[in-house]
C-alpha cells in the first residue's frame, strides 16, 4: 500500500476532499479497471479484470475498498479508485520501503508502521530477527480485515506475529500520545496501547509511513506537526522512511519535501523503486535519519542473511545503494537544498 | 524510438504479423489514446489527447504512423499502435541507449545507428565530439520525414550533422554488405553508402540498435545472423547496445537473449532506464562488448564534459553504473548464464 501523495507533498494539494473522492470512484468498464487519474492528469493505467473477478467492494468508515482478480497481475487492492497493490509487483514497494531504513540502521529493535493495512510492510519488518517490537497504527480496521480475507497468501501473512501491537487509530494522535508519554489519550485504542509501554521507552529505531490517500482517512498525517512528532518519537540514530511519490510526476513537490526535511533532520535522502502498476511505473521514498554520518542512509550497515536474501525478490545490498542514484534531472533538483 | 520487443526476444514471438497489426491499430476513443496491449496483455496505458490534437496519421510502406499532441506529455509518436516517444520523457531512453555504450568506450569514432528514425539517438551520438562517422540505417524514410516535421524541436535536431550518412535500407542487408565488404549490394542505397567507405575500414566502435517493432518493418533484424553481422562489423573493443525490453514483462526472454549473447561476446550486461510512457514504466538494454575486461561496460571509461553534462537530463556517470544494478529477481535470473 502507498499513499496517493506523500505525507508532506499533500500540503500543496488544495482540491476538496469531496470532489476528489467523487472523481476517484473506481471505474470498471467492460472487463477493464481504469485507475483514477486525478493526481496524474492526462495519463491512465488500466488492468484487465478476470471474468467475474470482482471479489470485494465496500465502503468502510473511511474509504471505498475494491478487490479484484486481474488477468495478469493477480489480485488487486484499490482504495478510493487508486491501485494500492497487485500481487505481481507489490514486493518491489514493500521490500524497499521496509528494508531501506531497516538495513540502514545498525540494530533496529523497535519499529513503528504507520498505515500499511494490507500487511505487506509488516511482512517485511517481521523478517528482521533483531526487531523486538512492532507497533502498527492503521486507522481503517476494514482494510486489515479485507487483506486477511483476500491477501493471506501474499501481504497479510504476519498479523499473528507476537511482536505486533496493532492499533486502529489516527496515527498523528497516536504518535503525539507516544511523544507526550500520556496514557490518558481520549482514544481508548491509543490509551490501551500506551498502557503497555514502559516508562523507560527509548523511542523507535525506525518509523515507516505507508499511509493511504491523503485526501481520505490519512489527512491528519499530513500536517508538519506529524513530522515533528515522528522526529520526537525516534530513538538516537532513528530513521523515518515515508513514501515519497514519483520523480517523474511530482518533482517540485518532492523537492519541497526534501528541503523541509533537511531543515529538521541531519540526514535526508531520496530513493526510488520500480513498480509497474504505480503511476509512471515507479515510486520513491523520503528517508530521514538522526544519524548525521556521511552516507548514513545510503550505505546499508547490515546485509540480509543468506536465508533472508533468498526470500527477497527486489532488495539486495547493491540495490539499496543504487536506489539513491537518481536520474540527472532529479539529482540536480534535489541537490539544491544540500 | 524503441522496438516493441527487442531484436533477439522476438524470435519467440509466434503470432502472425497480420493479426498483430490488426490489433495494433491505434485506438483513440473520445479524447484518450489507448496503447495496443498485444505484447503486454492485461495492462494498458492511455494518454489524453488535446482537443484537435491529432497532427499526423499515415500509412508508410512499412507501418502506421500517428503523431498527436497529448495533454501532459507533449507530442507523441506512435507506430503501429505503440508509443515510440513522448516529448516529456524521451530523453530517458535516448540518452541511456546512446551514452551507455558511448561512455563505456574509450574513444568511439565510428558509430552505427540501426533504426532511430525519430532522430533522438542521433542527437545524443552527435553530442560526442570524438565521434567522426555516424552511419544511420533506418528503413522507413517516412518516419524521418514525420520526425523532421513534428519533432524538430526535440528529437529531430541533428539530421544536418556533417558526420551523418543516412541510408534508408534494411539494416540486416546493410550490415551484411559492410561485413562482406561488397559495394555491389543489390540495394542501390547500400551500394552508394559502401562506395564511400574506404577499403581500410576498421569497423564500428559502437553499434546502437533502436529499431522499430519486430512484427513490422524491422523483422529481418531479428534473425541471429544479424547479431553475427553486428559482431563482425565491430572494431576491436567495439560495443553493441540494443533495446532489451522490460524486466517486469519479458524476463524469461531477456534471459535467453543474454545467454545467447554471452555465448558470442566476451562481455554482456543488462541495464535499464525508467520511461513513464513505456510499458510498465521502464525499458532495458542488452550491451555486448568485444572487450573482455572486467566491468568493461559497467564502469564508464570517460565522463561527459561539464558543458555536455549540462545538456543531459538523465545520464550521468553515477547513473551509468547504477543502471546495471538490477532488482534481485532479475539479477538472480541473469546470473545463471554467467
Structural notes for this entry:
Chains A, B: GO terms for molecular function: spermidine synthase activity. Chains A, B: InterPro entries: PABS (IPR030374), SAM-dependent_MTases_sf (IPR029063), Spermi_synthase (IPR001045), Spermidine_synt_N (IPR035246), Spermidine_synt_N_sf (IPR037163). Chains A, B: Keywords: Polyamine biosynthesis, Signal, Transferase. Chains A, B: Pfam families: Spermine_synt_N, Spermine_synth. Two copies of one chain form a homodimer. By secondary structure, chain A is an alpha/beta fold. Chain A folds into two domains: 9-86, Roll (Spermidine Synthase, Chain: A, domain 2); 90-335, 3-Layer(aba) Sandwich (Rossmann fold), CATH 3.40.50. Chain A has helices at 17-23, 90-104, 120-126, 141-150, 171-180, 188-195, 224-233, 247-262, 306-311, 317-322, 328-335; strands at 27-29, 32-34, 43-59, 64-70, 75-79, 82-86, 110-115, 133-137, 164-167, 204-210, 234-243, 267-274, 282-289. In chain A, strands 9-8-7-10-11-13-12 form a seven-stranded mixed beta sheet, with helices on both faces. In chain A, helix 2 packs across helix 3 (120-126) and helix 5 (171-180) packs across helix 7. Mean pLDDT of chain A is 88; it is low at 3-26. The interface between A and B is large, with 41 and 41 residues.
